[in-house]
Amino acid sequence: MTTTTGHLRTALWLAELGLPALPLREGKLPFGNCPACTRSACGDRPNMKAAGPCQCPAPCHAWGAATTDPAVLASPAWAAAWRQAAAVAYHPGGAGLTVVDLDNAAAIAWARQTLPATRTVATTRGEHWIYRGAMQSANKVRPSVDIKSTMSYARWRGPGTGPMTALPDAVRELAIKDPTLVRPAPCSVPAPAPAGDGQCPHRTPAYLERGIAMAEQRITEAPDAIHNTVYRTFLAVLSAHGRCGCLTGAHIARLFTAAQAKGESVRHCTDAWDNARTRLGL
User: Fold this and answer.
1) How far apart are CA 67 and CA 115, in angstroms?
2) How far is CA 189 from CA 55, 173, 206, 242, in A?
3) Residues 6+ apart with CB under 8 A from 73
4) Which of 14, 128, 130, 193 has the fewest Cβ atoms surrounding its Cβ within 10 A?
5) What is the three-class DSSP state of 118?
6) Cβ atoms within 10 Å of 270's Cβ, excluding its own
7) Residue 230 exposed, middle or buried by CB count within 10 Å (0-12, 13-18, 19+)
8) Which residues have C-beta within 8 Å of that of residue 12, sequence separation ≥ 6?
9) Which helix (H) or strand (E) holds 212?
10) What confidence tier does 76 reach under pLDDT thresholds 50, 70, 90?
11) Burial category of 244 from C-beta neighbours within 10 Å (exposed 0-12, middle 13-18, buried 19 and up)
């Protein structure tokens, strides 16, 4: 069996298990977009997700190319990628999973002391801890610790050992960089609209202003991973103030303006805001 056939067979087997698969080239990198999809020319929506206009048959859009459709995986459009593939990856979030990527012995020791035990997969330098449940991905949440779930991919290194545990709050909280922004204080208003009258029943106006200013600064100073930074920042602001009605249209406009100054489109800002509200149940 050739390497090409072996990678494709692995991908087809993962698809049978419900794990969206995709090929990786050397360096554990996905294949680049085709010319028609470069620079978001196609609308920048993942393929095979029924979420947008792109219907490119090639393995474009990195993690967005991951699919459980065997006809797509074995299609002629994917043949060249499989011939060049160095490994197989899967999209954890697409299967409702989260991978905590522990890159060395120190990170593993921390996880054993901090996180509930779950299914473990050995990697070249460390371990993948796999939990049942999806969340926003985040890199470098701790030294040598990454979180791979939605909008991300993980290299397939085998099924691992041990039972799979439900995703704990301890892992979700790792993706939030500033806990002062995401710890909601008790609030008597159960579920208001996302923008209110500017009055915050549980914090002073100065606290709200500081939170918005910090959120703007976080977006403005982000060196990379702008999509993830914008989403996490929106999530943090809504976690602190989304249930008390203190956010006004002016506050939201400030956040959107900061994101657009970093290159985000209005659509991406709106999607990130809506996704954050959905996650929080607002």
Assistant:
1) 30
2) 43, 24, 20, 10
3) 8, 11, 12, 15, 21, 67
4) 193
5) coil
6) 12
7) buried
8) 21, 70, 73, 74
9) helix 205-220
10) very high
11) buried
Distances, alpha carbon 225 to alpha carbons 88, 217, 268, in Å: 23, 15, 13
E-assigned strands of the chain? 21-25, 29-30, 87-90, 97-102, 119-122, 127-132, 138-142, 145-148, 154-155, 165-166
CB 154 within 8 A of CB 195: no
Q: How many other C-beta atoms can be found within 10 angstroms of the C-beta atom of residue 113?
A: 7
- Domain boundaries in the chain? 3-89, 93-169, 179-280
* 3-state SS class at 240: helix
pLDDT tens-digit map of 192-201: 334 444 455 5
Please report which residue ranges of 17-151 form alpha helices under DSSP H. 70-73, 76-84, 105-114
Residue range 25-56, pLDDT digits in tens: 988 899 888 888 877 777 665 544 444 457 78
- With a CB cutoff of 8 Å and minimum separation 6, the contacts of 220 are 258, 261, 262
Three-state secondary-structure class, residue 129: strand
